[in-house]
Amino acid sequence: MNKRTLIPIAACIFLSMCREQENNWSFIPPSQSGVSFANTLVEDESNNIIEYLYFYNGAGVAAGDINNDGLTDLFFVSNQGSNVLYLNKGNLKFKDITQSSGIKSKRKWETGVTMADINGDGFLDIYVCGVGGYRHFNGRNQLYLNNGDLTFTEQAAEFGIDFTGFSTHASFFDYDNDGDLDMYLLNHSVHTPRSYAPGDVRLLSDSLSGDKLYKNQLVESGKVLFEDVTKQAGILNSHIGYGLGVAVADVNWDGFADLYIGNDFHENDYLYINNGDGTFKEIIRNATTHTSRFSMGNDIADFNNDLWPDIVAVDMQPRNEQVRKRSAGEDAYDIFNFKLKYGYHAQVARNTLQLNAGMHQGTPLFSEMAYLAGIASTDWSWAPLFADFNNDGFKDLYITNGIVRRPNDMDYISYIAHDSVQLSLQVFDKNDLEILKKMPEGKESNFLFLNRSNYTFQDITHTAGLFRPSFSNGATYADLDNDGDLDLVVNNINEPAHIIRNNTGRQQGNYLAVSLHGPAGNTFGVGAKVILFTGGARQLQHLMPARGWCSSVDGRLHFGVGSHALIDSVMVIWPGNRMQILKSVTANQQVTIDYSNNNRAFTNNVLFGNQQFLLTAVTPVPDYRHVENEYNAFASETLIPHMLSEQGPPSAVGDVNGDGLDDFFIGGGRGQSGALYIQKTNASFTHSDQPAFLADVSDEDTAAAFADVDGDGDPDLIVAAGGQETNQQLIPRLYINEKGRFARHTFPPVSINASCIKPADFDNDGDVDLFIGSNVIPGLYGMSPLSFLFNNDGSGNFSVNQTWLAHANFDNVTRVRPGMVKDADWTDINGDGLPDLMLLGEWMPVTLLIQQPNHTFVNKTEAYGLAGTSGLWNAMLATDLDNDGDVDFVCGNLGLNSRLTASTSKPLQMLLGDFDANQSSDHILIYYNGDSAYVFPTRDQLIKQLPFLKKRLLKYKDFSTIQVENLLSAEQLANGSKLQVTELSSVVLENTGGKFIVRPLPIEAQMFPVCAIEADDLDDDGILDILLAGNQSAVQPEIGPHDAGLGLVLKGIGGCQFQSIAPHTSGFFVTGEVRSSGILRSNENQYLYLFGRNGNSLVIFKRKPAD
Question: CA nearest 307: which of 73, 64, 537?
Fold first, then answer.
């Protein structure tokens, strides 16, 4: 055999090996596994989605070792048929023991299942939920008590938990740390006329729909008996509680189990914080900025290994663009805000991933980051499960998916809206079953996302061999064959359950399985936290079996440890905060840890130490709160991506009275005066009455700056207004400082919708000139407004410079205007002694204007390496980050946590023009979903803006398949223009002398729009650190709010490189929508850090002075 023959053979072998490594999962057929269970639905005139809202929701599955033989057994719930119990016989073979076990299904509709040792005898019992007391559904929840001999006895009534109503699922955990298992019963509701009411109806009680909390009396009485403590514990149990998901974990590290409840439809999700005294406090609106709107299943786990439990909840936003365009989406902006005023929390119709940022003022705060993570859209999803499926030490995410028929299909909704159809549905009979068939099928594949260990996930569904469309609901994981990796079990509608073998084994990493032996009333140690320490990394897991959707997982905790053959230590923290530590534990085994060996009390200092924050909040802060007036720019410009009407307050810092301490001005909203605060020697502030400010309240302040414009040695104040309202004067105001009293001075009567004011002596004539940038023309979003340069005569009298851009050209439709400028900075970039001007804004690149000797400016953006930076920029800071003697820039962009994405090859675009010739501006966003470009607006939005499209797009199905190039005619496109964005990351521009290198900031800085930037050496190591804040909520609902920012410190490590410091470590928490910032000199070499928030109060931080 010659070498030419060997090469292709070797290549074939290599490719075969690659395929085997990629295809790490196998579906085990029923003929091999013995699991033939199928949740078969039979639709008729009594059993259908019209008669029962949740007819297509499916049912759960539980995994657990019912006979303590070391093999995980399975229990499947059937909605209409018989539940089935399978005994694991080893090697992924199971035996149906339902009949011999004594388990019988007595009701017509069952839902969720949980395994737990409820009576403390060391054997797992089984609790099954269902629907009763509604139409023809009857029966009560059932508790199958394990007799220890593979038989069970139903005893729910004897134990006081034979509830009848709309039960979904139950979770058993020790909420009061008394040593036995209590129960949270999750219930759902159905629509009635009283379902749509103000949010305070959640304070009412409903016997069928309301959730329940039951306290176990085992420890107190020696007998298992559950007492309903719902009301006294503070648990909401109203008729608007559409409970579809329950997850339990200690999210705030106080040693008591907290609850996350996912509610469908308009009702809030609930986050209950355990007060430790038998009561709970619901804090969802304080802890999160928004949640999923149609919350299905959920899970809590620490996916980023920072020891803080994170929350995932799934919804039903399609990933496929054609399905998405046929499906009902978000509420309109005015309806969204109406719900907020009606007492409901902000909601988005997609999956949400809440990153736990730690504690702030006694409350755990979360950053929602599903878009950044890549898991926001998985279609009609049910069970999210965090687990390490490849043993690399990071939790991956499995999500089940699919629905028999899609009731939110817009063509179906339009069809049933006809009067004749509505009349027919009033009394449903078998003839109306044909109406249901108008709903399209929703068979979709489940998803497996691999954790990349950088807050993002990779969809490996296809490459892992898991792509298989189905109607999947409940799911669980367990190492069914004890080979060192987690397998999957899925309960499907109308087809056999999936038994999916994980073939990873130890190819990709080692593992450790941990079993717990708890105290008498909690024999499996439910609620314990287990932490692995390996090679400097830490992993946290809570033993809480009830997870995902109507299901529960195996009680053995599975940890992947990568290449480590030895685990440094294993820490167990038991409920009640007793702990024990095992050291030098060998990998690739199962260890059992016994509660009786706990030897010390646990305190948080063991893990987190006595933290010394870099920054602490200053209290009290000046009694100022920005007031934002209500204005809906979407009413006049329907399809713009976001509003620019909420850009205040601006701030300006300067030593107004010459005492060596910096003071500050903060701008007002429309109808609100700006305010001046004078710093005192103790770093507090007093309000300075300024009558001139009180006279100027007609416009909304959006830009401000101090500068000595009259050359008398003290700072004067320039303030400008902006927004998108068309009835503002928008003339900049100049206030001259007269020994601390400010007086209005004349200024050129030029109307400027201002975004920034940047003073500088640009012409080197000894006085301060002004650049005032503009970001939008009211009513004409996307068009480049005029930004102005004003010359100072030396006495504070300004004139418009008409020629400064006479020789500049720009890549936009005007060719002579820079663009939608949001921020700017004067810096001598080329070292010729003349200040140059760096600009950034929306739909424009970071733009460099080099000043010429004749004081005009030319556009040198491309020459300096910035041509590919077109973004949705917000803010800029110029400083020497790398101590090399030149100025670098930190530039704040939209970020990557958005439905909107952009790159050079897949830009975000906006068509701009008057496409229907009605003398108004039209905007059509074009974005990429996968490898194809699509128009972003919904069919209804487009037709409302462009009515001529209705004849071409009669059905939503027609709209779902239309190509971008076929939406408008060539003539219409020719009369418009196209803007584009290729960069959405916030970045550092490293100045290398003649060129800038664009360096994305760390991924944590991409979670939110950066609107405020400051730099200082916070830790006194000689390298500048960065403070970032921002957020943006006035966004098209189909895009969703960009509000994950809680403030972020980036530690400088040299060379324009940075590392993120989480808020719970830095102490830097800034919630809300930050619009301005400043650094103030204080006493004794201290510095204060000021942040102004839209519609909110001020926040000021301080740090220790340098040693």
Answer: 537
Residue with tokens 């609902």: 1037
pLDDT digits (tens, 9 = 90+) for 900-929: 999 999 999 999 999 998 988 999 999 999
* Residues 20-59 pLDDT 10s: 345 789 999 999 999 999 999 999 989 999 999 999 999 9
Segment (H or E) for 333:
helix 333-341
Residue 938 CA to residue 919 CA, distance in Å, equals 23
Torsion angle in degrees (nearest 10) through CA of 362, 364, 365, 369: 170
CB 1079 within 8 A of CB 1088: yes
What does the DSSP assignment read for 53-119? TTTTS---EEEE-TTSSSS-EEEE--SSS--EEEEEEETTEEEE-HHHHT----SS-EEEEEEE-SS
Where the chain has pLDDT below 70, the residues are 1-22, 106-107, 506, 1104-1107
- 232: how many CB neighbours lie within 10 A of its CB? 12
Give the C-alpha separation, 326 to 955, whole Å: 9
Cα 310 from Cα 435, distance rounded (Å): 42
Q: How many CA atoms lie within 13 A of 883 on its CB side?
A: 12
CA–CA distance, 389 with 478 (Å, rounded to integer): 10
Q: Where are the domains of the chain?
A: 25-402+443-516, 615-902+982-1103, 914-979
pLDDT at residue number 107: 67
* pLDDT of 18: 39
664 contacts 650 by C-beta, under 8 angstroms: no
β-bridge pairing 871-872 and 908-913:
unpaired
What gap in Å lies between CA 1080 and CA 1014, rounded to an integer? 11
- State the Cα–Cα distance between residues 502 and 355, nearest whole angstrom: 28
Q: Comparing C-alpha atoms, which of 203, 205, 163 is closest to residue 186?
A: 163
**Angle, vertex CA 178, rays to CA 176 and CA 180, nearest 5:** 100
| Whole-number pLDDT of residue 504 | 85
The CA-CA-CA angle for residues 434, 436, 440, to 5°, reads 115
In the prediction, which pLDDT does 1105 show? 53
pLDDT at residue 21, as a whole number: 42
CA-based nearest residue to 110, from 146, 59, 75: 59
Q: What's the fold here for domain 25-402+443-516?
A: Methylamine Dehydrogenase; Chain H (2.130.10)
Number of C-alpha atoms within 13 angstroms, CB side, residue 437?
7
Q: In the block, which residue shows the tokens 């509660």?
A: 595
**Number of neighbours of residue 947 by Cβ within 10 angstroms:** 11
Q: Which residue has the tokens 């992993």?
A: 539
Tell me the two tokens of residue 81. Answer: 């048929």
pLDDT at 9: 37
* CA dihedral (890, 895, 896, 902) positive or negative: negative
User: What is the distance between the alpha carbons of residues 253 and 294, in angstroms, rounded to a whole number?
Assistant: 28
Q: What's the maximum distance between 2 C-alpha atoms anywhere in the chain? A: 99
pLDDT recorded at residue 927? 96
Residue 808 tokens read as 């500049």
Strand partners, 676: 665, 688
According to CATH, the superfamily of the domain at 615-902+982-1103 is: YVTN repeat-like/Quinoprotein amine dehydrogenase (2.130.10.10)
